[in-house]
Design goal:
NipSnap_domain, Alpha-Beta Plaits, autophagy, transit peptide, mitochondrion, globular, eight-stranded antiparallel β-barrel, alpha+beta, disordered N terminus, NIPSNAP
Length: 256
């Protein structure tokens, strides 16, 4: 009995350790190189502004006057992908998504030129008086997601943001490279991004729907497709926190 008990104990200890010790395959490259699109070098900036409630209309008017000038000016290597107000989620909030074609050098070029732009300097000063808080992130685009391109409306947009557990970005990418095919039948997939600077291990999925009921119908339909439930089962443990914003595009937004 003694020999049998002592022989089984190491196996039991090993099994218990396996429940708590995560095995990670060694990586020989940064996850940004493994997951981002190689054929492009675009960098994205996500801006989230919490606006004073009494200033939201004035803030929107100001942005609609100034932001298109930056977007349309050819010597700025950037483009406004979309601009919205949050409808459901945190209230009195503005969300802007920019693309910098050429990566960090393009970002530096735009920021340098804007510092010399008196109109933009005045815009930032006036805008600052309307804000309670603001934050931004620099993002890369997942290789397996659609390129976010302008679309006609009317649409509502959902920005689903996931705070992943550190060290799980590769796993997330591997699962979603398969999962995305379940969510493209209705052209609802707009873009998928992961953070490089700002809050790290953040993933953002951007979706477009005709209305809230259409959103519900499309999401429910995914559960009837073989394989979707399994992918959800494996990705949920990778998440620490998640947030959903339903957003309405401003008139100047290329994503309508």
């Amino acid at each position: 009995r003694g020999l049998g008990s002592s022989a089984s104990r190491p196996r039991e200890d090993s099994w218990l350790k396996s429940l708590f010790v995560r095995k990670v395959d060694p990586r020989k490259d940064a996850h940004s190189n493994l997951l981002a699109k190689r054929e492009t070098s675009s960098l994205y900036k996500l801006q989230i502004h919490n606006v004073k409630p009494e200033c939201l209309d004035a803030y929107n008017k100001l942005c609609q006057e100034v932001l298109p000038k930056i977007h349309e000016e050819k010597h700025y290597p950037c483009a406004l992908v979309g601009t919205w107000n949050t409808w459901y989620g945190e209230q009195d909030q503005a969300v802007h998504l920019w693309r910098y074609e050429g990566g960090y050098p393009a970002l530096n070029e735009v920021m340098s030129k804007l510092r010399q732009n008196k109109e933009f300097t005045e815009f930032r000063k006036e805008r600052g008086n309307m804000l309670l808080s603001r934050k931004n992130q620099l993002l890369l685009e997942f290789s397996f997601w659609n390129e976010p391109v302008p679309r006609e409306g009317p649409n509502i947009y959902e920005l689903r943001s996931y705070q992943l557990r550190p060290g799980t970005m590769i796993e997330w990418g591997n699962y979603w490279a398969r999962a995305i095919r379940f969510r493209q039948d209705n052209n609802e997939a707009v873009g998928g991004f992961f953070s490089q600077i700002g809050q790290l291990y953040m993933v953002h999925h951007l979706w477009a729907y005709k209305d809230l009921q259409t959103r519900e119908d499309i999401r429910n339909a995914a559960w009837h497709k073989p394989g979707w439930d399994e992918l959800v089962y494996y990705t949920v443990p990778l998440i620490q926190e998640m947030e959903s914003r339903i957003m309405i595009p401003l008139k100047i937004s290329p994503l309508q």
